[in-house]
Amino acid sequence: MDRGDHLGAGRYRVLEELGRGGMGVVWLAEDLTIGRRVAIKELLLPHNIAPQERQVFEERVMREARTAGRLNDPAIVTVHDVVREHGSTFLVMELIDAKNLSDVVAQHGPIPVDQVLSIAEQLLSALEAAHRANIVHRDVKPSNVMLDANGRVKLTDFGIAQSIEDPKLTSSGTLIGSPTYISPERLLGQEASPASDLWALGATLFFAVEGYGAYERPSTPAAIQAIMNERVQLRRAHGPLANLIMGLLDPDPRTRLNGGQVRYLIDQARQHATAGVQQGPVPTTKPMPKNKRGAVIAVVAVVLIVALGAVLVFSGVFESKQKQEAAGPQTSGQQPSENPTSESSTSAKSTPPPATAGGNRAATTKTYGEDGEITNLQVVMSGEPGTCFIGLDLNEPKFDCTVEHDTEIFGQFQLNRDSGDYPGEQSMVKEAEAECKSQFDGLAGKDKLKLWTLIPTKTAWEDLRRRKALCVVSKEDRTRMTGSVKGN
Prior knowledge:
13 helices; Transferase(Phosphotransferase), domain 1; six-stranded mixed beta sheet; six-stranded antiparallel beta sheet; single chain; EC 2.7.11.1; Ser/Thr_kinase_AS; 21 strands; Kinase-like_dom_sf
């Protein structure tokens, strides 16, 4: 189709091309009958596609029109008409004068928190409208989220949406959707569901707030492996916003956040933002999910599963020394700023802050866990000594300590080995500080290092993998280290 062509018995005049995607071209056109501009999506298929496959794709486009026509929500793009001419199928849609979320982030970087919350709320509304109609979108992703200048959000492309009532249109074993936004259960072969749409919503919000895709990898197999085995690491999101994203990205659809829980956390995050306070931890409506590796091997036969080793992911552990000196010691639950400095400047100028003293706890000992002083902590398995990190917040683990790094877990040990019962904070503090100090005293160059001791909260203790104390060091002068402090 070219500029100046007419469709729909002359009703629609094509003006110009707006964009292209994997399945079609979007044109700007004018509805000559009503006198309004519209967007027309033309199904675009390879010339060598088999006739039976072409029929399947054409039916998918028709279903997109039927699907969108059944939905009524301000955040869903309206389909006005369907035209079949010149051997192709065209959808006549509401014209949205907006850029998609992917392009916005590419041009301007991460989205501000208040706008992320608005996006989350509007997308949730669109998905709930679809789910009430027994429709699953199946392809929620940044490029399908349109943002206009007034903050309105539109969810586009229900072309691969599958009504629970409709028969499948895809071949057996075929996954439809963008690989980095496909939920773990769908990779395991389960049907798409409202819960899988919510997982994709979480991945989309991660992209919006962090500025990159949580599971972007150099290849599709690597992306699948990351979705099935890795836990995302949040840098900019804290408190209820972090709990929202992590709860949506729960690998188990049975314990993943539902719509009501998502709305609760959106409200909590908005209250914190409106009050002008840093986002601290709030109680979630369920425990944060644990990584589920048991079912992975059967699915990812296409992926070379790499033994990743044990990882500890910390968010919001450290803060700039300059801010500390100006504001004084942090109180429990406070998090770093939503707008951190660049990694290089943070590494050069930051140092861990003292913990708020609790009981007989020294200022260099902090509790970790969802209800601890260090929140947004996910223990995948166990943090092995000699694990080095770039950034004082331990967001990017580096297993090879020959790479320049800012912090290192140089020691860990099991607490209360005798019975396994929760020993109480005072007992753990005494044991952890003594053991970490003993290990610290054996380090070469200890006079230039800063020691931090981490212990679990009672809630974190319920996870068997968290019943340990961790010994962490950074440079006293806030410069980077090369090589393990243990001399390995």
